[in-house]
Amino acid sequence: MSNYWNNQLMYPASELITAMTGSTVLIGTLLQRPVKLILDNQSTAAVILYISYDLGTTLIQFHTFPAGEAMIIDDDLYTISKGASFYGNGAASGSFSISYFFTKE
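Above: the chain sequence. Below: its structure as tokens.
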């Protein structure tokens, strides 16, 4: 009997984190395709999170995070593409962090 189990290991990527300034700022760009993604508003004010696939020319408003809110995206079948850039806009009262795991291609 064949074993069809695909035993892939997840690797952590470097955290993307930036202080909010009251203007739209680049949080970071995905260097790998994530399979687990943690979006964490570490500030005391709401942050609007945008995703861009063209280095910030077009910003897609993804979600408004209330102060202290985090979101986990945990899906091994669908993913955000490598190269996607995240931007945030919130009052200068903390940082926004994006952490993720990826598998080797």
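Residues 43 and 94 are 4 Å apart (CA to CA).
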